[in-house]
Amino acid sequence: MTTAIELLSPAKNAAFGKVAIQHGADAVYIGAPRFGARAEAANSVADISDLVRFAHLYKAKVYATLNTILYDNEIDDAVRIAWQLYESGVDALIIQDMGLLRCELPPLPLFASTQTHNVTVEKISFLEQVGFKRVILSRELCLRDIQKIRQNTKIELESFVHGALCVSFSGQCYMSHFLTGRSGNRGTCAQPCRSSYQLLDANKQTLIDKAYLLSLKDLNLSAYLLQLMQSGVSSFKIEGRLKDLNYLKNITAFYRQRLDSIMEQGDFCASSSGRTTFCFTPNPHKTFHRGYTDYFIEGRKDKVASPETQKSTGERLGWVSAVFPQYFVVETTHAVSSGDGLCWLHPQRGLEGALVNGADGKKIFPAKPVQLTVGMEIFRNNDFRFEKQLAGESADRRVRVAFELSEEENGYHLGVTDEDGNTVTSVFEAEKITAKDIEKAQQQIIQQLGKLGNTVFVARQVRFSDSFGYFIPAAGLNAMRRELTEQLEALRLDKYRAKEEVRQESDAACCPDKKMDYRGNVANAKAKEFYLSHGSTVTEEAFELQAKPYKTDRLTVLMTTKHCIRYQYNACPVKQKKRNEWKEPLYLRDSRHTYKLEFDCKNCVMKCIADD
User: Fold this and answer.
1) Within a domain: 486
2) Model confidence over 192-247: pLDDT tens digits?
3) Phi, psi of 469 (to 5 degrees)
4) In whole angstroms, what is the distance from residue 338 CA to residue 319 CA?
5) pLDDT value of position 547
6) Quick one: which of 524, 546, 502 has its CA closest to 76?
7) 149 and 36 housed in the same domain
8) How many structural domains is the chain composed of?
9) What is the Cα–Cα distance from 283 to 365, expressed in whole angstroms?
10) Residue in 10, 315, 37, 40 with CA at minimum distance from that of residue 166
11) How far apart are CA 304 and CA 44, in angstroms?
């Protein structure tokens, strides 16, 4: 028995969602009209309904994000939107706020957002017991952690495999709200992790000046897909609801091809229908990225930050071998063309770049004067030809069908069966004209029935009854084809029924966090009631509800992260076993605040603490 595997792509809007499906996504996730963790990617219910119909033709699914924490005066609106989404046909709701579990929700599967901090077996087991169908795993987990979760739970496991990384554990970052009043848990993160900071020692002396000390590389787990499948992950998620269309096309296509190559082995299959053909060669290095990391999938082994720049560097072309007044020479195997964007890291000024006016082999003529030295690495962060190729028609996805044609007393009987076994048939009254050349007549029928360009189908076979030897005019064949394909599309939608999921919550489920401070993100009375009923005492309301200066019984932890600045700069006393020359404690400083860094080596995490 094969295991169904889902490629899950982001949808900024309905149009992007359709493109993702055309490029091979088995499912897409899209923002609800309100209360999504990307407030800038909200969508109307009508647009989501349109996307649902398109997706379901391919047996692809649509998941709606309703995954911010909610205030008391927002609960009713969130529930109302949930029911509207149910009526639109979405396949599941992605939520964070447990207050919704004390409301009358529609019978839809619930997915626990990664914002619910899904790290431990105990937490994920608890979410399963209170009725979640799927959990979106923390990005920080390694394969061994995921295997342990699979061995101890039956809940569906979804894992991010590509895209931007939050430096903090998801749902556990309060820095944006602390600085700007814009909360990541409310969908409006200001991304302070992409800002520059100074690193200070115990005497507040500068150790590192103005570097992107909290900015991580982008995730790329394409080399680990099979291991993740074998560890129990069934949904592979691409980050990027705010990324552009070419990113969506390229990265979805890349993972579609990688997954399909694994599925050829026979143990796994796609969870939706249709095959996608591409008009380009997917390449993740040609799309926005800050350098790639496999993060902690094999534990801590590489440095995960990109302190030199928070911007996209693109693909490495080579290195500068000569510099002249009008051009420079790059030792590269790649072809560079006019319109390309090149960039490099200057040791003093950081990331710089220039457009290419022209290229003659390895000679590059920039559009403006540049300051380069021999040995500098050159990257291409905009491939003009590749982007132009993606901007056109770049993929075609089709559901395979087979036609069967036979004669009736007063005409013809035509049937069509799709790859999922759905069949429609019809009898067409028509004058029967004996073919003078049977082979030629049948080829003309095959050609006309195969004209399925305005449908989701492609004809893989046309079968004739043994005695069939008739000529059918093209107009008649076209009418027969249109009628049957319309019926087949309607049948596919009718037979596609999202299973109604009546959530069952175990009264015996015990919340693993017995006392819950502001990091429990409890922002409403219903959430507090939920946790109380499962053995947890809420000692503090959500950070977003607290008045400045956020005084608690201890200094406020604004961020907890697996990224370690000591490790990044070869000063980890545990993993690198090198003597630390820095006088600790260490501090980060931006233009307004100072933050103390606390290193919890036992759990291998770093905490960023408000220290003003």
Assistant:
1) yes
2) 999 999 999 999 999 999 999 999 999 999 999 999 999 999 999 999 999 999 99
3) -150, 50
4) 19
5) 79
6) 524
7) yes
8) 3
9) 25
10) 37
11) 37
